[in-house]
Amino acid sequence: MSKPIVERHTIRLAMLGMVEGNGHPYSWSAMFNGYDPGEMSQCPYPGIPAYLDKEPKLTLRIPGAIVTHIWTDDPSDAEKVSRAAQIPHIVERPEDVIGQVDAVIISTDIGHEHVERAKPFVEAGLPVFIDKPMVDNEKDLLVFHEWVKQGKPILSSSCMRYSKEFIPYHRSIHNLGELRFASITTAKSWERYGIHALEGIYPIVGPGFESVRNTGSPDRNIVHLKHGNGFDVVVVATKDMVGGFGLLQLIGTSGHTFVPFQDTYYSFKTQLTSFIDYLRTGQRPFPFEHTVELMKLVIAGILSREEGGREVYLSEIAPY
What are the Cα distances from residue 78, in Å, to 166, 214, 302? Predict the structure, then answer.
């Protein structure tokens, strides 16, 4: 039987890391701490205050946890986020939060940096949440796999797993008959945003993917995935296709549906709440084996593109 990982009444969190193109320290911290509207209006990602301002202040925050410490790669960013999201402590080094917090959130989305960013906290026994994608290469996937095998409390996900618009299809797609084809789109790069598309569709179709073929380019990834249950999935990740984030299509033998992703705030809040629930109960919101398969899909998409569109089988990628 699972037992709590953290038993403190109010869980103290550290928000660690900030890279170009990713404003999670602003938005995620605000979902725990609330925010100063004037300071948040200066956020360099205008979409963040836009969706935060739509939420009722009484229900904005995730109860039972607070971001008490922040560190960012550029120290000036930490000062801005601290003022906007009312974080009391700025640290000079990420390791300085050890002994001061109950868990850490690594809020960066460059997969090949995550082993190095997570290692001090994993070794210190702190629970770690890692923004998507957890990794983008086989070597690092093996490291995380070994850590989790040792019982280290590590969780990683995309907010798209928790899309309010997609959740009804997690429960059932029987009205579509037998699934034959699915597609989903995203902007930006396969390396950093392909996981959004993959994890958006994964809870609907389930594990069992067999191969990946990426016939696109670094800026225009056209990725064909084959599933063991006899259907195909196409994921498109195009650098500047901002108008195409999270457009899901499902087609079966007797019906079809088209579902656009819309509510960013709901997805992020539910994603972060799942981490807090994991700390409270010790029960994973989904099996770590699913994260392993998703990372293999990301890795296979990179390998296939680099090898001229070769069909890459997940069985080629460790852990076997």
Answer: 34, 38, 32
pLDDT tens-digit map of 70-100: 999 999 999 999 999 999 999 999 999 999 9
What does the alpha-carbon distance between residue 111 and residue 131 come to, in Å, rounded to a whole number?
9
Any idea which fold 11-160+266-285 has? Rossmann fold (3.40.50)
| Fold equal for 11-160+266-285 and 164-263+296-316 | no
Q: How many Cα atoms occupy the beta-carbon half-sphere of 7 within 13 Å?
A: 3
- How far apart (Å, rounded) are the C-alpha atoms in residues 188 and 186? 7
CA gap 228, 60 in Å, rounded: 41
pLDDT band at 2 (very low <50, low <70, confident <90, very high): confident
The domain limits of the chain are 11-160+266-285, 164-263+296-316
Strand-pair partners of 187: 238
Strand residues in 87-188 grouped as ranges (E): 89-90, 103-106, 128-131, 154-157, 179-187
- In the chain, what is the straight-line distance between the N-terminal and C-terminal CA atoms, in Å? 28
Residue 17 to residues 25, 88, 109, 230, Cα–Cα distance (Å): 8, 16, 10, 41
